[in-house]
């Protein structure tokens, strides 16, 4: 079909020339060359359809445009003097060969040679031609060759452009396919994870939300009010106080905030769920483009923690009453004058029972403190240096037993408004840990000084230290490091938790540095006056 289309311009042009010839010079139709030209044109046109040219090489079908020159020559031979312009019919095979792009230079040469033969054939048929007769029509072959060159150049540029477009289209199709696969993967992941995911743009419009998050939104809707409305069922940690709109995760995300594990309660009172929300800002060339928020349902975990706190508090309350009674009766027995006649080993046993009962009572008090989460302080002007010296006097006997030396680099006086009992508890905890976690001997150094409006306390030991992994959980309730467990050092993991609570209740801060096998240093900074 492509060859037939290429042949049609010549066929149509000849069909137009025939009636003109019939009017101008009907005698030409009797010419043998004219008739042969028409017959050959019909044969070549039929061959364009009948022959399966696609089975052959691209140059094979050139036989048709080359023979088209013979068609033009036959028509031109006897009709040149009657119908002007028959020679220009040669432009169609010239264009055909040049546009094929199969062999550009061969097309140029054939365009010149075949056109020249078409023009010279009538001259040679009349006898020996003169040079002038041969030279007169030579401009037309050069024009035909020029046309062939121009057409070949345009065809080459077009082919290159077509190749580029094809490559670009293939690349675009590949990108579209990859994007489609990524989109399907993203949808699959979002619908698989048990986390609500939402993405918003810089204007706060939702651009992505998975089914889990749609369920969270539905839970927060009250009587058709959208989740961003002031009446949405979103509450603070107490499950009663509505969370202010400005403090809701979506609004904070719009302010370009990034945060993690923000707990809020969502839903009506009898169906509330606890959600932990994380947010990360999206940026496009440094400009805020929106945020992605993840909502994790932590209801079961929060309820379990609350149940744990309730259990610890309940058990601690139940234990404190009998322990107080046991300690009281032991004190009465040990203070009784008749104890002088009791054998020494019984007296020693009662002292052990008293000491362990008092230790158990302290543990119960710690459990109650951590369970309640409250810290009551009784501040008064106190010499913190004196508290340091008292704690050192308490810990030195135990330290000497295990070969630990205790040194003090302290200022003689450090006045501050603190709760002396609580700060003594802080010092006792830190010193007790420093000695306890130096089981193979070593040294403990206490430093105290004033820096500006703060009192600084430091407790440094050369004990077992902590790994980087353990350091992340050092202030977690009931946490004990792997090294401590291996060494079978007694404890329940509440001392540092309580210490941190006391320091922060005073408006201070606690920090530490530690290296596994080299020891730890804890640093407490307390304000001199009440903040």
Give a brief description.
By secondary structure, the chain is an alpha+beta fold. The chain has helices at residues 2-24, 32-50, 63-79, 91-100, 104-125, 131-135, 139-192, 211-220, 249-254, 299-335, 344-372, 384-401, 420-436, 468-471, 482-486, 495-505; strands at residues 196-201, 206-209, 234-235, 259-266, 273-284, 287-297, 380-383, 404-410, 415-418, 442-451, 454-461, 509-515, 519-527.
Task: Give a written overview of the molecule.
This protein is α+β, with helices and mostly antiparallel strands. The protein has 16 helices and 13 strands. Strands 2-1-6-5-4-3 form a six-stranded antiparallel sheet, sandwiched between helices. Strands 8-10-11-13-12 form a five-stranded mixed sheet, with helices on one face. β4 (259-266) and β5 (273-284) form a beta hairpin. α4 packs parallel to α7 (139-192) and α13 (420-436) packs antiparallel against α16 (495-505). The longest helix is centred in the N-terminal third of the chain and has 54 residues, at 139-192. It starts with a helix and ends with a strand.
Notable traits:
alpha+beta; six-stranded antiparallel beta sheet; five-stranded mixed beta sheet; 17% strand; rod-shaped
Q: Compute the gyration radius: what is it?
A: 51 Å
The portion of residues assigned to helices is: 40-55%
Average pLDDT value?
A: 83
**Strands side by side in the biggest sheet:** 2-1-6-5-4-3
Structural classification: alpha+beta
């Amino acid at each position: 079909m492509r060859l037939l289309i290429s042949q049609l311009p010549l066929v149509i042009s000849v069909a137009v020339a025939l009636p003109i010839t019939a009017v101008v010079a009907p005698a030409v139709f009797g010419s043998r060359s004219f008739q042969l030209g028409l017959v050959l044109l019909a044969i070549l046109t039929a061959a364009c359809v009948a022959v399966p040219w696609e089975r052959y090489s691209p140059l094979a079908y050139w036989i048709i445009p080359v023979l088209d020159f013979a068609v033009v020559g036959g028509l031109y031979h006897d009709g040149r003097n009657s119908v002007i312009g028959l020679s220009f019919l040669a432009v169609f095979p010239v264009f055909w060969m040049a546009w094929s792009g199969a062999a550009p230079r061969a097309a140029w040469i054939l365009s010149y040679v075949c056109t020249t033969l078409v023009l010279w054939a009538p001259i040679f048929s009349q006898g020996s031609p003169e040079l002038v007769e041969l030279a007169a029509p030579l401009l037309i072959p050069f024009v035909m060759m020029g046309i062939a060159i121009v057409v070949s150049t345009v065809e080459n540029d077009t082919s290159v452009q077509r190749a580029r477009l094809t490559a670009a289209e293939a690349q675009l199709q590949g990108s579209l396919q990859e994007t489609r696969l990524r989109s399907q993967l993203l949808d699959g992941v979002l619908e698989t994870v048990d986390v609500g995911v939402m993405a918003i743009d810089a204007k706060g419009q939702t651009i992505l939300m998975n089914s889990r998050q749609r369920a969270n939104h539905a839970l927060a809707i009250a009587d058709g009010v959208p989740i961003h409305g002031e009446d949405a069922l979103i509450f603070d940690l107490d499950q009663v106080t509505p969370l202010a709109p400005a403090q809701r995760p979506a609004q904070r995300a719009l302010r370009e905030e990034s945060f993690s594990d923000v707990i809020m309660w969502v839903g009506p009172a009898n169906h509330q769920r606890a959600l932990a929300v994380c947010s990360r800002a999206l940026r496009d060339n440094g400009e805020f483009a929106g945020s992605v928020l993840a909502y994790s349902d932590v209801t079961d975990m929060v309820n379990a923690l609350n149940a744990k706190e309730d259990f610890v508090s309940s058990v601690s309350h139940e234990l404190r009453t009998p322990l107080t009674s046991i300690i009281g009766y032991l004190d009465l027995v040990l203070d009784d004058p008749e104890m002088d006649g009791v054998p020494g080993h019984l007296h020693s046993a009662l002292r052990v029972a008293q000491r362990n009962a008092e230790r158990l009572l302290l543990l119960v008090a710690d459990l109650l403190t951590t369970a309640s989460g409250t810290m009551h302080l009784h501040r008064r002007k106190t010499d913190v240096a004196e508290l340091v010296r008292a704690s050192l006097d308490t810990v030195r006997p135990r330290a000497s037993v295990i070969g630990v030396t205790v040194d003090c680099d302290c200022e003689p006086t450090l006045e501050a408004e603190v709760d002396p009992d609580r700060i003594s508890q802080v010092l006792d905890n830190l010193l007790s840990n420093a000695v306890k976690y130096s089981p193979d001997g070593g040294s403990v150094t206490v430093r105290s000084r004033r820096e500006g409006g703060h009192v600084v306390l430091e407790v440094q030991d050369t004990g077992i230290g902590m790994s980087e992994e353990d350091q992340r959980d050092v202030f977690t309730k009931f946490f004990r490091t792997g090294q401590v467990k291996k060494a079978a050092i007694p404890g329940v993991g509440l001392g540092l938790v309580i210490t941190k609570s006391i320091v922060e209740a005073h408006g201070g801060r606690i920090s530490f540095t530690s290296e596994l096998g080299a020891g730890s240093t804890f640093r407490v900074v307390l304000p001199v006056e009440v903040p």
